[in-house]
Amino acid sequence: xxxxxxxxxxxxxxxxxxxxxxxxALKDAxxxxxxxxxxxxxxxxxxxxxxxxxxxxxxxxxxxTGVTFRSWTDGETGEIRDxxxxxxxGLARDTVKSMxxxxxxxxxxxxxxxxxxxxxxxxLTGFGAFGAMIAAEARGVSFxxxxxxxxxxxxxxxPQVGTGFAPARGPLGVLRDRMTTFGGTKLIDRxxxxxxxxxxxxxxxxxxxxxxxxxxxxxRQLILTSSAFDFPADLPANARYVGxxxxxxxxxxNAPWAPPAGKAPLVLVAMSSTFQNHxxxxxxxxxxxxxxxxxxxxxxxxxxxxxEIRAPANVTVVAAAPHHHxxxxxxxxxxxxxxxxxxxxxxxxxxxxxxxxGRDQSGNxxxxxxxxxxxAVPRGAAAPRIAKAIAKVLETxxxxxxxxxxxxxxxxxxxxxxxxxAEVEW
Length: 426
Description:
Largest sheet: 7 strands, parallel
Strand content: 5-15%
CATH superfamily of the largest domain: Glycogen Phosphorylase B
Structural class: alpha/beta
CATH topology of the largest domain: Rossmann fold
């Protein structure tokens, strides 16, 4: 079978006859923004028309991507306060309300209106933009779902997202996955399924059997990571690995930064760009670096004021820095385990210490650990334990070699966005 990217290699921009219109419908979920905007920019760079419906908080970051930006008419998407949830049921309820169901009716109205106006050839939605998916389906327009992480939906061979499980082994492992997947889906359905089916009924669409079925109605599920990083599984026919988008957030591009002076190994600390109640965790990491013969550069992101962190002489704390530049000088990365930071570190050949907090982060940590490219440490670990993990990764060559090997496959999949463009320029 020929490589689907062959036709893009050396190809010029689309002709007038092949130029298309794309409508994006996105939500600001923090770390998902840079890869989603990166998709839009790559399509616009090819000469296509791109219109974007998104939270107003994304407008500044979208500047320069070549898109026509429009805000949702009903304000911002709710914040995921997973750090405040006391039970899995509470977390599911709050996530569904703030990210999935709450914005869906207005998303559907805005997306339907935009479809009627701009007549897109394809709608591309964020993971939780269910209202936009429903509007596209109702208007008879093909839609793709952007999945800027490892594959998050139930699939045979894929551990349930959020569990941090390794792939199943033997009958008991298979039973474990069946039970956790069934339970996870039922928990989301409890809060999402009835409201979504009510909305689908308004648009004269048949009801869903479960919440995730809405994404299976997509033309494509575009998985914005490398298959080399994810676990093998039996994915649906419309799922495609199209490689990661390694773009840094726009707010880091001109951020001033400099590592501490000296020649000791440079350790980059990059935590969540959204608040996950992680100030104390970050402080313990900084304390750990202070006890080691290293130089530390900590980027707090927009969620944390650098002044909240007490830094020793060998650690510099800044709000932001372009990670792709820092990683060219760094020896390793300490992170909460967000997909964007993990995949960029591996692409740069850097091993990791991961203190995962929630969401998909435990899953990213176990993927790194099983590939031998780093160590996972509990987020509540004391500074001496964190320091021990950092020292072990720096002193053990096998971690670096594993990161370099995995990073090579990641870089190949990310190169030029060819896998992505081969799917959206059908």
